[in-house]
Specification:
Helices cover 16% and strands 35% of the residues. The protein has helices at 7-16, 18-21, 32-48, 63-72, 166-170; strands at 55-60, 87-98, 104-105, 108-110, 115-117, 119-122, 126-131, 134-140, 146-150, 176-178, 184-187, 189-193, 204-206, 212-226, 230-243, 259-263, 273-277. The strands form five sheets. Strands 1, 2, 12, 13, 14 and 15 form a six-stranded antiparallel beta sheet that branches. Strands 9-8-7-10 form a four-stranded antiparallel beta sheet, with no helix packed on it. The N and C termini lie far apart (66 Å).
């Protein structure tokens, strides 16, 4: 089954929450995937939103407004009604690329399907490089965007797509030039999937008044069409955000073996105390006054 990851509309939907919560929110993760998203993707994507005219976003306290925004852009995903103090956001990325030189329609034999599928043959404005993924083909578009193609390593188990953000992180790879090939033959594509972004649930922040809000709904739909003329990629994300009084479960740094401990005071050249504490002293000290 095809998998996709598209972080810009996820970022756009979170960024749009500023209209209700106040600008420049600090979002807090409750799982490892959220921590990877916030640490590796959210900040750079957020900085670049204003440079991508193909992104549009909206926010509303009425789920019907969000759902209409999505329907008008031909997405099937939708949000459920919000609680009285909740709201929703949606963000859509819609990018089209035309091959710099139109390809030729040529059937492509696919062993896994035991037959042929509609294919495209490109002979101009295609370059190749070598990376840890193997060979990467780079097809130029009229706008200057580049579409990249890379086969997964051979073998059924190796051809499974990585999960979640690992797919995005896989393509960040060093490349060197390669002159072994001089044409590209690829299948036409008509993809329409709804990636599971439930990993976004429970991501939380505070508004300017200090009240806590969390992501309570998270849906995404991604489409890709590709033929001899070029490609069109669309991805829509919708988030339902609600006020919550429930504190997220903390992620503790557990001290359960011998540890180093020291007490410092600003302005002093040395700590008051440095101690290496072993389990034989892990005991209830009773009152601090009785010492």
């Amino acid at each position: 089954m095809s998998r996709t990851i598209c972080t810009y509309p996820i970022t756009g939907a979170l960024d749009k929450a500023d209209e209700f919560l106040g600008p420049d929110r600090t979002w807090h993760a409750v799982n490892d995937t959220q921590r990877r998203f916030l640490g590796n993707h959210f900040v750079p994507c957020r900085r670049e939103l204003g440079r991508i005219p193909e992104i549009e976003s909206t926010a509303s306290r009425d789920h019907a407004v969000i759902n209409r925004f999505l329907r008008e852009r031909k997405f099937a995903i939708a949000l459920n009604p919000f609680p009285p103090d909740g709201f929703g956001t949606a963000s859509v990325l819609d990018v089209t690329g035309k091959w710099r030189t139109m390809g030729t329609v040529r059937p492509l034999n696919v062993p896994d399907l035991s037959g042929e599928v509609p294919g495209v043959f490109l002979t101009r404005h295609v370059t190749f490089s070598l990376s840890r993924l193997g060979v990467i083909a780079h097809a130029m578009t009229e706008s200057g965007d580049v579409a990249n193609f890379a086969l997964m390593p051979d073998g059924p188990s190796k051809r499974q797509a990585p999960d979640d953000l690992a797919l995005m992180e896989l393509v960040a790879t060093e490349r060197t030039g390669l002159r072994t090939y001089d044409a590209l033959h690829f299948p036409m594509v008509n993809l329409d999937v709804q990636p599971d972004i439930s990993w976004m649930l429970e991501l939380w922040t505070n508004d300017d008044a200090g009240d806590r809000f969390k992501v309570a709904q998270a849906v995404q739909q991604t489409k890709l069409k590709m033929n001899q003329f070029g490609f069109r990629a669309k991805s829509g994300v919708a988030l339902g955000i609600m006020r919550t009084s429930v504190q997220p479960r903390p992620r503790p740094y557990v001290i359960d073996r011998p540890f180093l401990f020291w007490i410092e005071r600003r302005g002093l050249a040395r700590p008051f105390l440095v101690a290496w504490i072993t389990p034989d002293d892990f005991r209830d000290p009773g009152s601090l006054d009785d010492m």
